[in-house]
Give the backbone structure.
Amino acid sequence: MAAARAAAAGTLSVCSMAGEIPLRSALERLTADELQPFANGGYVSGGVQQLLLSSLQQQGDQISATAGLFFDQIVAGCSCGDDPVVEPLFCEVLVTLHLRTGQLQLHR
């Protein structure tokens, strides 16, 4: 009964968490170039190392969530003795995956 109410409200229930799989998979495949707009002045090194999903919702052919992304950035040019420095970074983004087209949209 609770699953039916959650489905009617447009949210994923425990029984329909299959929507998390394509979203998580798409986020794990993000490249350094795709993550670059979310860096804090450095250059993104590699891809997503870890991610957290919350507020997962499905409406029609779209899955939306808030995602916490962990990745590294290289900070160069600060004239430090150990220049460049690799710095861990966390960024929270709003994510929408269009299931029909496979298009992934990220917004701060």
The first strand starts at residue 43 and ends at 59. The chain has three helices and four strands. The beta strands are 43-59, 62-75, 85-98, 104-107. The domain at 19-107 is CATH 3.10.450 (Nuclear Transport Factor 2; Chain: A,).
